[in-house]
Every structure is written in C-alpha cells, then in structure tokens.
Write a structure and sequence with these properties.
The complex is a heterodimer of chains A (about 475) and B (about 190). Chain A has about 475 residues and is an alpha/beta fold. Chain A has helices at about 10-15, 45-50, 80-100, 115-120, 150-160, 185-195, 210-215, 220-225, 240-250, 255-265, 315-325, 350-360, 380-385, 390-395, 445-455, and strands spanning about 20, 30, 35, 60-65, 100-105, 130, 145-150, 160-165, 170-175, 205-210, 235, 280-285, 290-295, 300-305, 340, 370-375, 400, 420-425, 440. Chain A has 15 helices and 19 strands. Chain B contains 8 helices and 7 strands, in the order βααβαβαβαβββααα. Chain B has a 7-stranded mixed β-sheet. The longest helix of chain B is centred in the middle third of the chain and has 13 residues, at about 120-130. Classes of the chains: A alpha/beta (about 475), B alpha/beta (about 190). Iron/sulfur cluster binds near residues 67 and 344 of chain A.
Chain lengths: ~475, ~190
Amino acid sequence: MQVADQPKTLFDKVWDAHVVERRPDFPDLLYIDRHFIHEVTSPQAFDELRRRGLRVFRPGQTIATADHNVPTIDQHLPIREPLSRKQVATLEANCAEFGIELYGLGHERQGIVHVIGPELGITQPGRTIVCGDSHTSTHGAFGAIAFGIGTSQVAQVLATQCLLQHKPRSMRIEVNGTLRKGVTAKDIILYIISKLTTSGGTQHFVEYAGSAIRSLSMEGRMTICNMSIEMGARGGMIAPDDTTFEYLYGRPFAPRGKAWDEAVARWRRLPTDEGAAYDAVHVFDAHDIEPMITYGTNPGMAIGISRPVPHPADATEARALEYMGIEPGKPLEGQPVDYVFIGSCTNSRIEDLRAVASLVQGRKKAPGVTVWVVPGSKQVEAQARAEGLDRIFEAAGFQLRQPGCSACLAMNEDKVPSGKYCISTSNRNFEGRQGPGARTLLASPLMAAAAAVTGKVTDVRKLLESAALATI
Amino acid sequence: MIRTTCIPLPVENVDTDQIIPARFLKATTRAGFGDNLFADWRYLPDGSPVPDFPLNDPRYAGAKALVAGRNFGCGSSREHAAWALADYGIKVVISSFFADIFRGNALNNGLLPLQVSEELLQRLFRQIEADPATEILVDLENQSLHIPALDESVTFDIDPYKKLCLLNGYDDIDYIRSRREAIEAWEKGLRI
Ligand code: SF4
C-alpha cells in the first residue's frame, strides 16, 4: 500500500493506479484503459494476432478510425490511390473480424484519432490511453496518461490490454502570467520546445501547469499536450479542473447521472498534491512569448516573429537552413508563402477554425496562395458549417475540405510541391514531411490565417486591430 | 556477438520521416521496407542513387551497424523505421542519444540501439572516415562494444528485461499473457 499522506504528482497517481504488477528490474505491467487504432500502424498488429491464433482481449476498449491516408475531397467515392484504399479496407476487415468499433470513412464520427477521442468523451481524466501514433500525448490535456506506441505494442495491447513500461521520469513545466494579444496555445508550446530543444523532454513525462496553462480552453490544452513529443517527452498532461469537466459533460461516452457525479469527485482528487516532487522543473513567463514561427526542419527551430533567424551553430542547422532556403540574420516576416495548411491533430478543432474565420472575415486570401482548411473530424466540419464558417472561408477563397491528417504528413494526395513554402498549423516541419522537398513553417492558426491573407509571413498582431479580436 | 563494418551518418536529430518517409507506410505487411530506408536522402527524384549518400557507397556495403549523430529516431512512433533498418540488414545503431519510442521499437525488432558518449561517437566517425573498413565488435551478453582500431572497449546499458528478450528470442506478448490472472484481478479492482 502507498502511504496515504505521501504527496504524489498527477502522473504518479494515474500511473500507480494502473500498475498490475511491479517486479524489481522489470518494467511495470501497466493496464491500458483505452486504445485507439488507425489504418497505418495496425495491420501488422492484427497479423501478429492471427499468427498466434489470438483474439482481441478486450475489444470494447479499442476504438478505430481511418485518418492518416484518407482523401479530403469526395470521401463518398472509393479512394483512388490503390495502396491507401487497401490500407483502409484492411482496417475495416480487421475491425469486423475482431469485433472492434470503427468510425471509418463516411461515419459521422470519423476524424483524426486525437480529435475524435476527446470529442466523443472517450478521453477522460485518470485514464491510461495509447495509440500507435506519437501524438497520442494530446489526450493528456484531460489529465490522462496518454502516449504513442509502436506496432508491436499495438499487438500487445490488443492481445492483453497491457503494456510493459518503465515508469518515466517526471517534469513540470510551468507557464505563469497572462498571454499577450495574438499569442495562443500553439505559440506557448513552440516557445517551450524552442527553449528545451527537440530532445529536452526525453525519458520524461511532462505536467504543464501555471496560470497561463490553466486559463486555456480544452482545445488549447490539447494543442500544448499534442506537441509534447516534439521535445522528445513520452507525453504531457494537465490536471483536470472545471474547464475539463465542462468540456466532457454530456459527450456521448462521458458518464451520466450519478456516475457523472462520482466520476467528477474522483477526478477532483487527481491534481498533484502540495509538495510532490518532480525530477525536473522549468518555469516560463507568458509575457515573454510572442507569436512564434519555425524556420528550420525540426520544431525546436522556432523564433518569435520579431526575432531574426539565428546563424547556424553547427552543420545540422546549416543543412536545415539550406533545405529551407532561408537566410540567417533577419526576421522571417515578409517571406512569401505558397500554401497555407490549417489542420492536423494540433490545430483542427472548432476553436482553431473559429480563430481563423474571425481573422479572415471580410478579407480574401492573397493571389497565388493555396489555402487548405482541413477540419479534424466530421463533427468539427458539421459544426463549422452550422456556425457559417464555411461561408467565410469560401468568400476568402479558402478550401474547406473533409477530415483527415491530410498535409500534416502528406500520405494522401494533399502534398506541398518540392521547394514550395507552406505555413502550417501542424506539428512537424521535418524535411519532406508535407511532400518531398516541401518547406514547412509551423505556426498558430492565427499566424497561418494572417499569411493566407497577405501571401507572406506576417506578424498577426498587425492584423488584429479590431478590439473584438484582442482576446483571441 | 556481432562483428561488422559501419555505415556512418554524421547527422543529428535524424527523424523517423527521414528513416522511412510517410508515403512508404502504406504496406500492410512488415516485409520490404529496407528498399525505402532513407529514401529521400538515398535516391534522386528519378529514382537513381544519390552518389555520396553513405548507403550508396560501396565501401560500406554489407555493414550491419549504422553510426548516427545524436537524438537518432526522433519524431513519429512508426515502427516502420525499425523494420526498414532491420530489413536493410542493420543489427546495431550506434548514437550518442536515442529518442524514446524509437529505442523501444528497435528493441522489439531485434535491433540494438547502442548508446555511446558523444566523444566516442565523434572519434568513431573520424575513424570510419579515415578507414571505411573499420570493424566493431558488439557483445550483447557482456554489454560491450569493442573498436580494435581505436583500441577502445566500452560497456553499454540495456534494459535487463529487453536483454533477456533479445538473447532468448523471448517476447512481450508471451510474457504478458502469462500474467492473465493478475490482469483480470486488476480489472475487478483487486489490484493485487
Ligand atoms: S494529424 Fe498529423 S500528427 Fe496528427 S495523427 Fe495525423 S499524421 Fe499524426
């Protein structure tokens, strides 16, 4: 038994409650409450089960969707690209064979796995959640332990509902103070990664805290936790509070009635105890953060929009600038862009689309720029239409497409051509991520919208004159 | 015990999108990813090999070890990265730092992520550059890396459970399934 009054972190509480067995020199045997699967990292896992003659141990705890290589137009037609079609068909066949609920193409709940989990209320505080996808960290925004796994582990969870895992170290990242105008959750996380580097969180599980984090909506918190992996962390989480409970209340898989009250009472005990210790602590001031943009080929190569692109410190950085065709020593503002991608599990939720719409309302995209708005799910798409955002996008010359990962990783047809610049609300600016030779500038939805209307990298604050926008 | 020459890749933060670009993730089986290992660095757009990329350099042909800059394998959780390396014939990746998920995926596929100091890594790069025929010896049992040309022997860390698995071809699913009673008890809230 754990000593009752020993202070524990949020992470410790959730982890320890899920340890089925702990043996010296062994990884913990960790119980997994919910498992998400998608078409790309699951087929070989189902093959593994077949090879061993196994069934899925708890089929009701695995949820499937098709997102990574689905087209974002004409989703009612058969997928044109044969390999993508085969992967999606394989997922459908596997779900049917093993009794797993599939929110596939055409389903009203289909969408990017990390968008639909929370919006359906499957993602809940205190749960352990895994998926064969590194951005599973998104779900940590609800106070869940959520992390990405490889396909061998997907097979393990299907077969046993457990994983063998060493308990990671803990890290607390505090962001205190009030955000300045035009600065959003995306800017906070890009700022943090630029300070801690892409390996700064390795072997740690992060808890984000502080008044600036607490003031964020669930959408903003998801954006933050989503990119935890970009600093190498196993995952990130935020203590549940009234914002969390309000978001979850009434969602399809959220508890109801008395069960809801009991759940909330349990969830209220999850936040970190006073005096609990972390292995590492970083503290930032929200006031120091301005709208951010990346200039290189990893998410840590990010700067405030008013700052000059740093001179390369080593061969790797020099190579990145060469790939990007970007000169050091001056700010990126004014850099022409060819594509604008608003989407991905980082920034494709309704709040992101609203922010974009509020900025472009009454404006038009710059000539020659292609703008893709790809909602994270069917439900986000439906809501955007219900709120009339589709008309704002249409009037601005933006393409509102159908849900999926799209140009975030360019597995479908949404690719940025070689050498072209794309300002993107996604999470990775790796070489070729958005298509071979594509040059990605990561930024917030507001910054992406600003670039869409001016045709070049723009400090969004210059477009935020109207008082109504000052609070976004 | 593995005795092999090395392919040098002195680039830091090699991410999984470079190891195996996303457009090659459409297969539904594990085989054949080696042909597309480092595809965008290895081949020109017309499919012909990039002459100075190390995987295309005949001096390193047949090497079972890849030596890469720090923070190797960052980025996505795609196990395809480990499959591509293994399918190509790589048995050991040597770097001064590995991303967590890649490390786990590698170990689940019989691929050893061998972490050395940055200083030794740089010496090894220089040595391979001077003599591409430089051999290394990796002894998993004793957790030692021997580089005769540098007159250097170091030990490396590996998770004891994973070492057991690698040495015995033992596997997580078998082990976890043997704990079924405990799992079901946990589910009932007994938490034994
Ligand atoms: S949107 Fe991008 S990062 Fe998110 S799950 Fe899809 S491919 Fe991965």
